[in-house]
Predict the structure.
Amino acid sequence: MDIETIQLFLVSVTEAATPLLLASLGEIYSERSGVINLGIEGMMLIGAYTAFITSNITGNVWLAVLVAGLAGALLSSIHAFLSITLKVNQIVSGLALSLMGVGVSGLLGQGLIGLAAPRLTRIHIPILSSIPIIGPVLFAQDPLVLISVLLAPALWFILFKTMIGLKIRSVGENPEAADVAGINVDLVRYASVIFGGFLSGIAGSYFSLVLSAAWIENMTAGRGWIALGLVIFSFWNPLYALIGSYIFGILEVVQYRFQILFNLPTELFSALPYGITLIALAIFSTEYARKKVGAPAALGKPYIRGAR
Amino acid sequence: MFKFIPRENVTLKFIIMIYSIAFVVALVIYGFILMVAGFNPILAYSFMFNNVFLNPYGFSNTIIRSSAIMLSALGLAIAYKAGIFTIGSEGQIYVGAIMSTWTAFTFAFLPSPILLILMIVLSFIGGAFWAFIPGIMRALINANEVISTLMMNYIAILIVHYLVYGPWKDPKGYGFPITPIIPSSAMLPLIPFTNIHIMPIIGLFIGIILAYMMRYTRIGYEIKVFGDNPDAARYSGISSIKVILTVMIISGGLAGLGGMGEVAGFQHRLISNISPGYGYMAIIVVWLARLNPLVTIISSILFGGMLVGADVLQTRFSLPISSIYTFEALVLMLVLIADLFSRYKLVR
């Protein structure tokens, strides 16, 4: 393989990995605060829809990205209200969110068929983009690639090295203790879930502003569920999510090439992210791994003061 | 801040009232969304009602479409009673469908009743096996069953895709991702004087058996105790492994049976989307029924009706099928809220 082919391959990998990374970073924050949100797929679809229509009407792609984030945040606030304030089952509520997103985007998206919208263009950063291989892959791409890659260490730092991160982790580990320590458990959870929705919405906008030139119903095609698996694969750690989403991105790109090269069924490669997540889940759930880097202890449990 | 105080003396009338309000509000919000999307909601609703409930053909279709939802939901009712939140019915339906298709072609020489029983048994085993993997992961190392069953769903769907696009593809199928029609001896008989296959009736019997099991048997008691308080159950000598595996096998097997009904009763072949989300609808259904097996049956028929309604609206108004998910999600969210208000009151 020559450098040209490698570059082309890596560029497709970044395009596959970026939405996965954005969505899983958001979900990590939500789950670290103790709220699992199965609505990623729905929030991504709503993000894709709102981004497309905003870009189509205003022609401003950055406004479209922002609106997609806000739409995701709005949808996630429904989940936050149901699961944090009303304390309904988080699984059921999250599932409702996904159904809602698939349904609403499918229904309203009917009006978008045949339309076009301005898309996120590639920006060449001077000097950096002329570095061989890395340059074109990272610094001559649409800006969301670089933003998401930089976001991972930033969110890692906030989660593990700042007071805000400590609060998020403590309400996810032990809400009773956090409450006693004067942390507003519900407020922290609301903020984390809505932040997660914001990133999922932006992840969705990537499909309609970068990956596809037209509106396609259900265009995220299950990526939201892969992002959910990625959260486990990455030990609820933003830095590992960066690595994980690029591994999953490679798998996605490779599946088409391998089919041509070795005549293997594409389904085998499509199934790999799910299989890997399943194995990762099995390994990380063991007593040893749990002690080192387990799931947030209060994940999925509503917090009711005074009730244990 | 608001606080939730448990209600005392909740009357049935109150529960029905609060659920009806939820349903009406869902209709109103959905009607509004339809309007935004450029459809006339009144026209759509009346057309749907006439063609689903006031039309014998629509009604029998409703029952047919509720079959897989019903069987999956009955299994989920038991699993959720035990506090095991599997969302794996969708994949288990696909595995049940694979098993029954394979059996239908491999043992086509058997007489019809024996072949059908073999298909029922093997599709149950297939679905149960697909549920057993996440079940054993949960039972032994406490691996989150929500994620594992979800991953298993996607793997099962991909296996079906591989089969219908690859080795099992019908050479005379004009390139569609479908297998050839199964032999007629492998098709489920119909209920006399109708065009409804017998799987919904089997579902009804299973519902009664499960209701009996939960109320009068030892394992039913253990499932309830474990679901209410796993720690207390463990102290009183109930094996968590036994309870988890039992509910997973029941729920997986029944969903597998649902898949068999789709192949042997409805489609008469394996197709790439043998279940358009029946397994996920079952989750909503069982939640609406508050995990009661018999109410689950009624609630599944309601959802079967919604699917037929969605079909009707697609043909008449070219409304996308996915729009029905919006309505389902609204019903679910509002019922979740209604459910809460039927048990608690909000005070300042």
Remarks:
- The two ends of chain A are 60 Å apart (CA to CA).
- The mean pLDDT of chain A is 88.
